[in-house]
Amino acid sequence: MTEINSEDINRIIQAILKRQNKIEWKPAKSHLHLMKRIRLGHLQRNATIEIYEAIIHQVLMNSKANVYVYRYGSLLYPTVTSIISEKLWLVMMGMDSILETAFPPENPNNCLNNQAFVYLGKLEDLLV
Predict the structure, then answer these.
(1) CA–CA separation, 71 vs 76, rounded Å?
(2) What is the Cα–Cα distance from 62 to 57, expressed in whole angstroms?
């Protein structure tokens, strides 16, 4: 199991801060993610990539958002959660700050209680 050290936390915060300025997806992935969210009922049928990215931006800009790191083997994925329109949204990115996914978990407690998620704290507390 990968240990999360202060250098990792610093890199996680830097990845989040970078995404606050501009949403960036893997090439040709933004619309695939948008269509999946619409298909699963997470977004309205007429949602646009701008609407989806606005939700992501709100999550990342919320100083009260919860910050986690998702561990997958030796890889770390910064993850931020926040309530948007009465739903908990989860935004996950790579350490390079490229978005992996953003969605409202069907059962947030089960999702975030997965041992792969490590809670780091509130965004505002980690920025100090």
Answers:
(1) 5
(2) 9
